[in-house]
């Protein structure tokens, strides 16, 4: 019984804090507190970044320079992954008939520098998707093309959690 009373008193005290402090003072005191991003967004960025790290590790063991992350290529990759999820398809051709060059240009990347695209779905981790790409001749060729200098990765999940991956490469 004492434990219940103690919890009730602590809970009541916590509820009363904003009232005791006053709403404006409480709001001012918490105004500078950084807001956390949703876990999915943090997961998404962390996973996308990990794919780049793993891709660069594969490249470095074969004599290619590391790719730099380009925000335009990220935008292009995320847009294609979103399109595939939203419109329930899996293909290098977008629902509007676009190819990776068109999508990279839409995101502001120079047409002459668009290089390649890898896509995958169902792989739950960055390690799984990079391993799958490295075990596929065409995807492996894109990753190990030393002429590529930039990359952007886009991960989007279906409502049931299935991951769709797009990796766009550039030369600029």
UniProtKB/TrEMBL annotation:
<feature type="signal peptide">
    <location>
        <begin position="1"/>
        <end position="27"/>
    </location>
</feature>
<dbReference type="InterPro" id="IPR014044">
    <property type="entry name" value="CAP_dom"/>
</dbReference>
<keyword id="KW-0732">Signal</keyword>
<feature type="domain" description="SCP">
    <location>
        <begin position="53"/>
        <end position="169"/>
    </location>
</feature>
<dbReference type="InterPro" id="IPR035940">
    <property type="entry name" value="CAP_sf"/>
</dbReference>
<protein>
    <submittedName>
        <fullName>CAP domain-containing protein</fullName>
    </submittedName>
</protein>
<dbReference type="Pfam" id="PF00188">
    <property type="entry name" value="CAP"/>
</dbReference>
């Amino acid at each position: 019984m004492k434990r219940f009373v103690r919890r009730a008193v602590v809970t009541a005290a916590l509820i009363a804090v904003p009232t005791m402090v006053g709403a404006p003072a409480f709001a001012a005191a918490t105004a500078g507190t950084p807001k956390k991003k949703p876990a999915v967004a943090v997961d998404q960025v962390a996973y996308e970044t990990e794919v780049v790290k793993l891709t660069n590790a594969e490249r470095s063991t074969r004599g290619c320079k590391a790719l730099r992350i380009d925000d335009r290529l990220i935008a292009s990759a995320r847009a294609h992954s979103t399109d595939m999820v939203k419109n329930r398809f899996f293909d290098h051709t977008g629902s509007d008939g676009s190819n990776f060059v068109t999508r990279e240009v839409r995101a502001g990347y120079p047409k002459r520098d668009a290089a390649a695209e890898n896509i995958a779905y169902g792989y739950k981790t960055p390690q799984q998707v990079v391993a799958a790409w490295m075990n596929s001749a065409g995807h492996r060729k894109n990753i190990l093309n030393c002429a590529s200098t930039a990359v952007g990765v886009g991960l989007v999940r279906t409502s049931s959690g299935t991951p769709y991956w797009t990796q766009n490469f550039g030369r600029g």
